Amino acid sequence: MKISTQVMDAAALQGHLDIVKWLHINRSEGCSVHAMDSAAAGGHLHVVQWLHENRTEGCTRGAMDTAAAGGHLATVRWLWAHRTEGCTTVAIDFAICNGHFPVVKWFSELASYQPRIASHTAGVSIKSHTCIKKDLGGRATLVFE
């Protein structure tokens, strides 16, 4: 029976580590970078960690972007500490737009990460948790309440 890398990718997307492991042992098709990316998007940290330890495909910056979009702080932190891909500037935008303020706060506290605040969120109160204010110089400041 012929299958493709999409099968392991789909199992990772759903967080089915048992199926990912079975395919790894019993099939030669493997997976693509979409396996780790989609596992991260779903917050399936156990799958992300297993793929990191047992496969070589890796992931893209989309893994951290979509983990941030989903509010999966543990996954974002793990990817930051153990992978080299990093993220794009939209990671914090996604977290802000989706109301995932622990993720936004974590990004804002990183000395090495200067978040770009989406212009459409500047000056607006978001779900009563955070207010993004602009000073006279046009710099955005996150205020956590």
From TrEMBL:
* InterPro entries (UniProt xref): Ankyrin_rpt, Ankyrin_rpt-contain_sf, SecEffector_AnkRepeat
Q: Which Pfam families match?
A: Ank_4
Q: Which domain of life is it from?
A: Eukaryota
**Name listed for the protein in its UniProt record:** Uncharacterized protein
Q: Which organism is it from?
A: Hyaloperonospora arabidopsidis (strain Emoy2) (Downy mildew agent)
